[in-house]
């Protein structure tokens, strides 16, 4: 069954792969990309979103710029991981089009309210500011959305502090709103995404497709490999964000576990930590779950197929 999604992202090397995976798989209907200040400033990541779509020769999917800053705090970007542009290491095509004339938050609200209930899935792969703003501005979206499948957080591991992941740490108040709204939330956190490692063999497999988009992805991975090695001590980079889309294409790619999850907004050492209560089986009304185990072979197969499809030109 085709799933209609809105990607809310801050491209970002792995966000770019998430966009390409959504574009290249026929079971995903990408209704729009909204952008959020995160890996880099809003201006830069919005340019990057348009450039990634341009790379894939995709000119119809609307791009709407969202919030430049978190709800309460100043924006902290990640140049050490994604470079000064947010997509360092690749030759980005110059976008031939611009964003639509609508704020990203309004695009999210209008798309959800304008479609049948329970047909739209939100896929945030950056800080959750836009999603929290949308919930506050139009609370009816909470009942209307099918589900939220987000990249962020982690149950046993952090990357922006000992216990907090970047997207959560940048806007913990927004994350608090999103996890506490009573819609179904799947957290694809670091426990899961640290299994999505782009080994040299995986990268060679993508390169072997031989198209400009395959080369583009390989260049992204070259940069990502170096920055993750230098800043986080990884041998192979974890390609976080496309795990969300892969889960929607084929839920069997990721084993999930239900548990109540909340977000720390007060802690001095734990700010932005996603706290999962694992003391007992989740209560029947639990609306949150997190990714535990990735079928890495199947995940990389989906990425390969999507990039190969884009090479042939998707019939959309
Ligand atoms: C997340 O932070 C960003 O740098 C990546 O794009 C991903 O969304 C991983 O912590
Ligand atoms: Ca991201």
Structure description:
- This protein has 316 residues and is an alpha/beta fold.
- It is 40% helix and 16% strand.
- The protein has one domain (3-310): Alpha-Beta Complex (Inosine-uridine Nucleoside N-ribohydrolase, Chain A), CATH 3.90.245.
- It has helices at residues 13-24, 42-55, 79-82, 104-114, 129-137, 141-144, 166-170, 172-180, 190-193, 200-207, 212-232, 242-249, 296-312, and strands spanning 3-9, 28-35, 63-65, 120-124, 147-151, 185-188, 254-258, 261-263, 274-276, 288-294.
- It has an eight-stranded mixed β-sheet, sandwiched between helices. It has a two-stranded antiparallel sheet with strand order 8-9.
- Bound molecules: beta-D-ribofuranose (BDR) and calcium ion (CA).
- Beta-D-ribofuranose (BDR) is lined by residues 12, 14-15, 39, 78, 81, 125-126, 151, 159, 165-167, 240-241.
């Amino acid at each position: 069954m085709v799933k209609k999604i809105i990607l809310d992202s801050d491209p970002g090397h792995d966000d770019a792969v998430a966009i390409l995976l959504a574009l290249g798989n026929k079971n995903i209907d990408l209704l729009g990309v909204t952008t959020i200040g995160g890996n880099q400033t809003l201006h830069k990541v919005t340019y990057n979103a348009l450039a990634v779509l341009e790379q894939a020769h995709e000119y119809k999917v609307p791009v709407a710029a969202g919030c430049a800053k978190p709800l309460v705090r100043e924006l902290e970007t990640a140049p050490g991981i994604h470079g000064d542009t947010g997509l360092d290491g690749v030759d980005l095509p110059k976008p031939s089009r611009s964003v639509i004339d609508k704020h990203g938050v309004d695009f999210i609200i209008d798309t959800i309210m304008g479609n049948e209930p329970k047909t739209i899935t939100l896929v945030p792969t950056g800080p959750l500011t836009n999603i929290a703003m949308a919930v506050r501005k139009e609370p009816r979206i909470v009942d209307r959305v099918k589900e939220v499948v987000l990249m962020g957080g982690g149950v046993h591991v952090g990357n922006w502090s000992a216990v907090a992941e970047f997207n959560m740490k940048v806007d913990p108040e927004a994350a608090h709103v999103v996890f506490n709204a009573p819609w179904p939330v799947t957290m694809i956190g670091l426990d899961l995404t640290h299994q999505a490692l782009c080994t040299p063999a995986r990268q060679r497999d993508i390169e072997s497709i031989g198209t400009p988009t395959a080369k583009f992805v390989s260049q992204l991975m070259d940069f990502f490999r170096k920055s993750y090695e230098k800043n986080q001590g990884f041998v192979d980079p974890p390609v976080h964000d496309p795990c969300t889309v892969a889960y929607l294409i084929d839920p069997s790619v990721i084993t999930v576990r239900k548990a109540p999850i909340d977000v720390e907004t007060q802690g001095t050492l734990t700010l932005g930590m996603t706290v999962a209560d694992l003391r007992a089986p989740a209560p029947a009304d639990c609306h949150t779950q997190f990714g535990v185990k990735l079928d890495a072979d199947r995940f990389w197969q989906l990425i390969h197929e999507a990039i190969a499809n884009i090479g042939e030109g998707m019939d959309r």
